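Ex. 9. Protein: Dipeptidyl aminopeptidase/acylaminoacyl peptidase.
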Amino acid sequence: MIATGSLTRVIKALKVDAGRVLAVSLALVLAVAAPAAGAQPVADAPTHLVTPNAIAGLTDVRDAEISPNGRQVLYVTQPGIGQRASHATIWLAAADGGTPPRRLTVSAGLDDTPQWSPDGRNIAFLSNRANPSARGVAGFDLRPVTGDPDQPTPTEAPRQLWLISATGGEAQPLTAVGRDIRSFRWSPDGRRIAFLAPDPLTACERADRAAKRDWAEADAPQDLARIWILDLASHVLRRIAVADREVSELSWSPDGSRFALRVAATGGLNDFYYRSDLMVMDVASATVARTIFKGVYSTGSWSPDGRRIAFTAPEPDRIGTRGYVADVATGALRQLGATLDGTLKRLDWSRNNAVVLARAVVHTRTVVMQVDVTTDRFRPLIDLDGQIRDISVADNGTIALSGSQAGRAADAWVFRRGRLRAVSDVNPQMRDWRLGKVAEVRWTSSRDGRPIYGVLVTPPGFVPGMPTKTVVQPHGGPADVWETSWLGSWTSWAQILAARGYVVLLPNARGSGGQGTAFARGVKNDWGTGDYQDIVDGLDMLVGRGITDPNRLGIGGWSYGGFMSAWAITRDTRFRTAIVGAGVTDLLSLSLATDTPDWFGGYYGSSPADVASMDAASPLRSIAKASGPVLVLHGGEDRRVPTTQGLAFYRGLRLMGKDATFVTYPREPHWISEPEHQLDIQRRVLAWFDAHL
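Predicted structure tokens for Dipeptidyl aminopeptidase/acylaminoacyl peptidase:
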């Protein structure tokens, strides 16, 4: 049998045309898909079709952390995929899978982000559990902000540091600083923990908040995170502030004498993503020794000898990602992955001074690669045949990761000596689900001959050659990417649609990640033209192969996928209906109102010619040509794509007598996180396409 992880390599080796690639990939997935690594044997054929309620009952896994000796793995579970967390639990598993995982923490709240002490004896983690001994530990004032600061009422406690033995027992509080701790790191010698949190509120600030004197000036720094160093023996807490800067991430140098810091002028999202600088600070003197790079995506990972730092940064126009290795003493830079046929996500130094581990998306899957920092040679190391979310490395080179596969929504995994093993099994009910089959597909652009990749999901029991109703779901970004991973959530509709008999095409058109920076730049100053042609080229291929019924086509997506859906329904009559989720419909107003203007500025400038290009690309300008019913969905508190973008599109459709429905979700930002709202979106998506296709 051919393992699913080998599918892409098999297809590439065939070197056939797009139609034969599709036929081969479908045949392989339908006929010989092997069980996922670590999956339990299946006694009977799956019998249940996946539903929104079933998806809501899934458990997510994240924060996989390998012990220093590589023998044990920590991971965190929480109900729901992509839901706003109200409960999370830390688990401990044997890296060799020899014993079942055991629950390490028991709490009614959030226990997460666990980290091993350097000697492997203890585990620090963040929790919002109640702390009855708050006054007896390092910190300040644990009182919540209420109407009367002197008479606090019960409220959710701030996230604080806790410590538990690796052998179990009761967790002990380490801090009570009265503000949420955002992240932390053990010192290499295990004697200190550095964490990031804002300053405690003054009495005046507490009174202002209680009285709702809470106006905010745009782009003004507020609640800047500081560095706090807790000495575990003395419980003395030391504060370090970087003048007029928010510290969003830190990492200790191997000898514990320096920090690598990611800092920005404010804690705003635009500054975090596009205006953060990488600095090196001397811990003893709290002085900044050097600014390594201006404009980074990550804090940086230290080489074992402490001489270099690996990090990622946006390209100069903020489209695409660069990898770098910096010499700490001189500031000299070496770029990594400039010619990689993929998109770098993160760089982490291995236990070898010459090798960095790169997490990258290549076409439709995440791959962990070994990178020789001298030659810039990338060599694949781990292919989960899906999506890898995070990794950690033990002293002996064993790697823990969390991720998903097409039929496995979330689990923790261990990679050792060339073998990948699942060490958790948090969603065993999925083995009873009749899922759609997931395949990477490729076609050729009619515009310029480029290869275009995507993911095709076909219904259970689908037989190629029978034209079927089809939904196209463009992704967000536009530099996001669809992967051959689990595709069932409020924003990934493929599996629930496949369960209802739909073929679903998830295209990675130009502008997407996964094929290098030049490909991602393919929509610069040109949204909706080349990328849309790439999408319909893939659709035409499916029609030509007898897979898609051209008379029953729908399109829908979220964010940039919402833009593409609005573009399609106002430019092309082939689609009978569209779902526009948090979609950009007027580019000029978005450029002035989004909370990440630097992101949008990478695609369009501000000259009259740029404004004319924005207007030409705006679905709102061509709304009179809308050819079918439109469902518009939007978060009520969306700042990325303000809610008025969806409202204007809906109002314009209705004023012109078009069939349109508009639904907003209170309290929700750009990404919907409340469980009932997520369920409603999935149910509406199914009902809408069923009604119109």
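Check your answer against this statement. The mean pLDDT is 89.
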